[in-house]
Amino acid sequence: MKNTTSAPVVVGVDGSAESLAAVSLAAAEAALRDAPLRVVHARVSGATADAETLVPHDVSATMAAALRTALDARPGLEITTEIIDASASTVLLDESDKSAVLVIGSRGAGGVSQLLLGSVALDVVTRAHRPVMMARGTEPATDAPVVVGVSGAPTGRDAIGYAFTEAEARGVPLHAVHAFNYPYTRDASQISEREHERANRLLANWVGEWRDRYPTVAVHLFSVHALDPVAALLDFSSSASMLVLGSRHRGKLRTRLLGSTGYTLMRTSQCPLAIVHKEQQSGQPQHFVSTLERAKV
Questions:
Q1: What is the pLDDT of residues 203-241, one digit of tens each?
Q2: What is the mean predicted confidence (pLDDT) over 28-48?
Q3: Contact 36/27 with Cβ under 8 angstroms?
Q4: Which superkingdom, per the lineage (predicted)?
Q5: What is the pLDDT of residues 247-291, one digit of tens each?
Q6: What is the CATH number of the domain that holds 93?
Q7: Where is the domain boundary, 105, 135, 165?
């Protein structure tokens, strides 16, 4: 039976191949949550449009292709579609307020390079009120782990909780990765055993509060000495079903608020990427109910 009370998984489409990849990801996410899928398209012209929105395409064909893609990915999924007269950023930010998670492509129909990040995607990720999931990489193996980048910053706490919910829903392990470095070190050989043990203890402490709430999730901790945390997380993304990162907070400064790590991985991650903001959650993540919480009902 469909859970008609669940907030929908929302995906934005614009006729690009990237947006159809986002539809497939969103359909899978909706099926995991037993939630409906909502497909939206921004239709606008003139000075108020985003640059990517102005690329000509057949709107009816765009929505039909999205619907076919979703049903091919998850037959029987409850799907609604809507064409909204507003800019893409406006539509997606408004929809994020009513969604469980917002799913987008890495760039729109106007993109020219695989490494260029669409202006709409960047705007939405930095300003959305709910978690934003970006379709990146190829379809991962069904048993691939969820990876969460852990820095110890207060804003990363909610990202860890979100990663646990995703791992539990998929029935896969969670890999918590803390890429650390000390100013005086150039390579791993300069890290003492005591320093490495300290990094391991910090990581275990940061993850610890969530392990008790999600007892069925197998957790693997990785404290990795790395001069470049992006390179370390990028390596883990190559064998992950999802990479989860925390962001500093919402605002208009875009890359500053997102952080250089998040901004770079939005362009380079080899698996779907989820960005979670601190304001989005308080205490237990709201998007799934953990096994422990179900037992209390």
A1: 999 999 899 999 999 999 998 877 788 899 999 999 999
A2: 85
A3: no
A4: Bacteria
A5: 765 444 444 445 678 888 988 999 999 999 765 443 344 444 444
A6: 3.40.50.620
A7: 135
Domain edge (last residue) among 90, 114, 135: 135
Whether residues 207 and 288 share a domain: the answer is yes
Which residue is listed with tokens 């500093």?
248
Which structural domain range is residue 253 located in? 146-296
d(CA 56, CA 63): 14
pLDDT of residue 287: 47
Mean pLDDT of 166-179: 95
Q: Looking at residue 290, which CATH number applies to its domain?
A: 3.40.50.12370
Pairing mode of beta strands 101-105, 79-84: unpaired
Q: What is the mean pLDDT of residues 41-66?
A: 70
> Does the pLDDT at position 112 exceed 50?
no
| The token pair that represents 232 in the structure block | 């370390």
Report the domain count for the chain.
Answer: 2
On whether both 116 and 154 belong to a single domain, the answer is: no
Contact 70, 79 (CB under 8 A): yes
Tracing tokens 């990517």 back to the chain, one arrives at 52
Rounded-to-integer distance, Cα 23 and Cα 6, Å: 18
Helix or strand holding residue 3 (H, E):
none
Give pLDDT, residue 8: 96
- Residue 228 tokens, joined: 């470049």
Tell whether 177 and 256 lie within a shared domain. yes
Strands, DSSP E only, in the chain? 9-12, 37-42, 79-84, 101-105, 132-135, 146-149, 174-180, 219-225, 242-247, 273-277
Q: Residue 25: how many CA atoms within 13 Å on its side-chain side?
A: 31
